[in-house]
Amino acid sequence: MQRFMCKGKIHRATVTEAELDYVGSVTIDATLMKKANIKPYEMVQIANLKNAARWKTYAIPAPEGSGRICLNGPPANLFSPGDLVIILSQGLMTDEEIEKLQPQVVFVNEHNEITSVEAHDLHWPEGVNQ
Asked: What's the whole-model pTM score?
């Protein structure tokens, strides 16, 4: 059996651009992509904290250190510069792969500069019967 897992996330990034006249995708600072375990052209889900819009598309890298988060194509109608978003990297995994999984949560400031990165262990909270 495979399970659909969150393998990384960029938490509360600020949208810097929205370009309607573009083929599609989301452009993300390559440094953020690397830290969140997102590969170029990998499918990601973006959630808008302002209006609850969610969009699935593929990620393309922007220059490292640029701080760019740009929604390209149709999602430019749902995301505007200044909006806060959560970008999730997901994958189908076997139980064996999940045993080795450590989702990376990348926290950023208002300029999309990394403030911290947390690797999360997958475990049940104490006192929960499995």
From this structure: 0.92
